[in-house]
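WARN no homologs supplied; continuing
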Amino acid sequence: MRIGITGKLFMAIFATCMLVLITMHWGVRVSFERGFIDYIKHSNEQRISMLGDALEDQYRRHGNWEFLRNNDQVVYQIMRSFEQNSDSSHNLPPKGWRTQFWVVDSQYNRLVGHSGPIPKESTRHPIHYNNQIVGWVVATPPEKLTRNADINFDRQQKRTSWMIVGLSTLLAAAVTWLMSRGLLAPVKRLVAGTHRLAAGDFSARVAVSSQDELGRLAQDFNQLATSLEKNEQMRRALMADVSHELRTPLAVLRGELEALQDGVRQPTPASLSSLQAEVSTLTKLVDDLHQLSLSDLGALAYRKLPVDCVHLVQIAVAAFRERFHTKQLEIVTYLPEQMPLFGDPDRLLQLFNNLLENSQRYTDAGGRLEIGIERLPGMVRIYWQDSAPGVNDEQLALIFERFYRTEGSRNRASGGSGLGLSICQNIVEAHGGEIRAQHSPLGGVRITVDFPISGE
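OK structure emitted
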């Protein structure tokens, strides 16, 4: 049987609690036993001292030990007197002897006590008379508990401590179980969400219930799911757009060829030109798709070197000037003498050509296009702004989407594939720059490109 992460966490926390609990129980038991024996030892020492003082008074009265020799009753009477007077004195030790004791004379002859041998390692209290030691009170050291009352008390403490250990174990198990479930609840939600995501359900989201590492992980998971869902939507839209873009020229080609086959139309230069135009449209679409796929994958080769972007803009404008003149469009440039930039001249020229072609296709006849280059702190700004027709705010936000065309004159009839600005965006981002679309003061669209300048 495989143990889940909840069981593993429960076992880890519970084992730690049990280790701490057993260690504390062992420490408390050792401390109690040692402290209790020390307490008994101190109590016996007090009684021995009191017994020695009492025997010293008796020896002073009788002048020898004859009154005590083989007469244990004298010692017992003295001990009972201690018990009777214990209520009136707060300095007396607790009642009862817990070890064996003897009374011996100065020659260590036994006077009172057990008949067995006197241990060498024992507690000894001297009895003085006229500054001389006339005897000793000897007691065995309390190595262990001997009285029934003490033993019963120790057993009761053991039972109580083990009961506390048992209750603490149950409480620790309950708290650990609840804690492990609570701590792993976000992890289980993430696991369930991951399974849904792996199964293709990109709408899966998990609740963010905290601001700790698990909470940030849940936020990252939701962001990942959102990105995957958006990419899936873009993939489906791309497939639909590609099929839609290919369907129209292919349908025209098919109709033209069927007309030629049926003899409805003759293979005149005009009909062949119509076929060539549709083939060019298909070729342009396929080329744009290929360029876009390469830029998305980062497979476009970028050979960056110091270039003069003013010179590149001038080359692109010169190539398009005749086409603009044919459509009665005016190109106005605001260019400095030079503007150094670190980039790939071929890709930058492709960027400028796409922007010029976009303006040439979609600007109404009689309009104008303004191109300018500015030096700003840490960047070079290049802008294209053309005249009418313009776009609204909603269209402006989608202008860099693939296959997106605005309504009105900016549509398929103008010959564009709807991929040019997407390719421009990828080229600019590959150079670490930023491209954005705004409303043009001339009534059309303003495209602004910002390139960073190295070393600033």
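The two ends are 63 Å apart (CA to CA).
OK
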